[in-house]
Design goal:
The chain is α+β, with helices and mostly antiparallel strands and 185 residues long. It is 50% helix and 13% strand. α2 packs parallel to α4, α3 packs parallel to α7 and α5 runs antiparallel to α6.
């Protein structure tokens, strides 16, 4: 699916009086509502750095980006909008969005420590070879997350702390990591 279809998926879930699982669970429905709002906010206020834009414009060979995500994913609400903005900077970059929990289950080929963590970015060359696999979150955010898990922090605390990190970071670490990976290829 393309980005617009992905964003429309939020509305179809939120406006459906009888959504399919997992969105029939009020928690997932609420996550989706919040994530839709966060995504729209980043699309409106998020900015790519000048260096990120230069790096994207320097891509000289076609790349196909696949972004594996889900509307219920909190990390995706902070990351996918920036990835979308990146793909708009160079016509040599094509993109598709795949849902983690739907066929073809591409996530099974890109597990993180054995888990289906998302979002995931897979960048392939014209021959379909993986150049970059990134995700599910920037390294410093992952360190924070791992620390909270080690402390056995309640899920609500984890959500709040990650939200604060993303808001304070303003997409900068994500961009630095993607920029570095693109420059290496």
């Amino acid at each position: 699916m393309d980005f617009n279809t992905y964003m429309e998926l939020f509305n179809s879930i939120l406006n459906n009086p009888s959504p399919k699982a997992p969105y029939d669970n009020p928690d997932y429905h609420n996550y989706t509502k919040l994530n839709h709002s966060r995504s729209k906010r980043w699309l409106k206020h998020g900015r790519l750095t000048e260096e990120m834009v230069r790096t994207l414009k320097a891509v000289r060979s076609p790349q196909h980006w696949t972004i594996i995500t889900e509307p219920w994913c909190g990390d995706a609400s902070h990351i996918v909008p920036f990835l979308h903005m990146m793909t708009l900077e160079n016509t040599l970059i094509t993109v598709e969005y795949q849902l983690r929990d739907s066929e073809p289950f591409l996530i099974n080929n890109y597990l993180t420590n054995g888990g289906k963590s998302i979002p995931k970015l897979i960048v392939r060359n014209e021959a379909g070879e993986d150049l970059i696999v990134w995700g599910p979150r920037p390294a410093q955010c992952q360190i924070l997350y791992n620390g909270l898990l080690a402390e056995k922090a309640p899920f609500e605390t984890i959500k709040v702390e990650l939200q604060k990190w993303y808001n304070d970071n303003d997409g900068k670490d994500l961009q630095l990591e993607i920029e570095s990976l693109l420059k290496a290829h």
